[in-house]
Amino acid sequence: MKGIVVKEVKVGEADKIVHILTDGLGLVSASCKGAMRVRSRLVSSTSLLAYSSFSLYQGKSMYTVDDARIEVQFWNLRQDVVKLSLAMYFLELVRKLAPDETDLRGHLKLVLNTLYFLDNGKRDISYLKPLFELRLLSMSGYMPDLVGCARCGQFVDQGMYFSPQSGDLICRECHLPVDDSHYTLLGSGLLAAMRHIIYSDFSRLFNFRVDAATLATLEKLAEQYLIYQTDGRFKALDFYKGLL
Ligand SMILES: [Zn+2]
Fold first, then answer.
1. Which residues of the chain have pLDDT under 70?
2. C-alpha Rg value of the chain to the nearest Å
3. What are phi and psi of 16, to 5 degrees?
4. What is the pLDDT of residue 35?
């Protein structure tokens, strides 16, 4: 079974418990005996962010890691404190938002691909962060409705307003300046990017292009949407933003 370590908790002197996002068991916790010892063969394969092949043994209350072989280490991003803290934030989001299901292969694929681009630097942080947030929310029961105007149903891409609070769109004709002040007018490039992130096939997910100004607004709206929908405070997000 393969998976990525999304959390580790030290237990006593030499042991730890790891939380793994797996390709077949959902999110599981497993104890690693002796993994904190420097010479343990499990040191790197069970470290945070490691994507490894695990042999798990099912005990009474928890799995135990029998063996683990590292597949991908994401070495570059571990050397960069901003990238690393963003990666930690992605892991925190997955832990908190992933549904309690055994098939989280879509979530795993999203995490691995996002970390891959963060690691090799082929996509900017300002591109990856809103993409990850919006796609993860959509896969985890918080999909916004960007099909058309929530009031008249009109599907247009010019002059649409989006609300991070209600997670929907209204068109220019339906928009009321006073009552709808929490709606933000979207440029057509921004709406297209948001629709792409939410509805596109996974194979094309990382292929859209937008200019820097659009990306800045996308980043702001995605984060607002996340905070409104999950009512959450994310420690790793605060830490990441403290570095900027
Ligand atoms: Zn309308």
1. none
2. 20
3. -155, 165
4. 83
What whole-number distance in Å separates Cα of residue 156 and Cα of residue 75?
A: 44
- Neighbouring residues of 174: CB distance < 8 A, sequence distance ≥ 6: 149, 150, 151, 152
- From the CA of 157, how far away is ligand 1's center (Å)? 12
Question: 2-72, what's its fold?
Answer: OB fold (Dihydrolipoamide Acetyltransferase, E2P) (2.40.50)
Superfamily of structural domain 77-143+188-243: Recombination protein O, C-terminal domain (1.20.1440.120)
Counting other chains too, the contacts that 99-102 makes at CB distance below 8 Å and 24 or more residues apart are 99/140, 99/141, 100/26, 100/27, 101/26, 102/24, 102/25, 102/26
Task: Report yes or no: 168 and 182 within 8 Å, Cβ to Cβ.
Answer: no
Domain ranges of the chain: 2-72, 77-143+188-243
**What's the N-to-C CA distance of the chain in angstroms?**
37
Using CA atoms, how far apart are residues 59 and 31, in angstroms rounded to an integer?
10
Distance 197 CA to ligand 1 centre (A): 23
Q: Give me ligand 1 centre to Cα 175, in Å.
A: 7
- Distance from Cα 15 to the centre of ligand 1, integer Å: 58
Distance 156 CA to ligand 1 centre (A): 9
How much is the pLDDT for 34?
87
DSSP for residue 203? G
Distance between Cα 169 and ligand 1 center (Å): 8
Q: Cα(149) to centroid of ligand 1, in Å?
A: 5
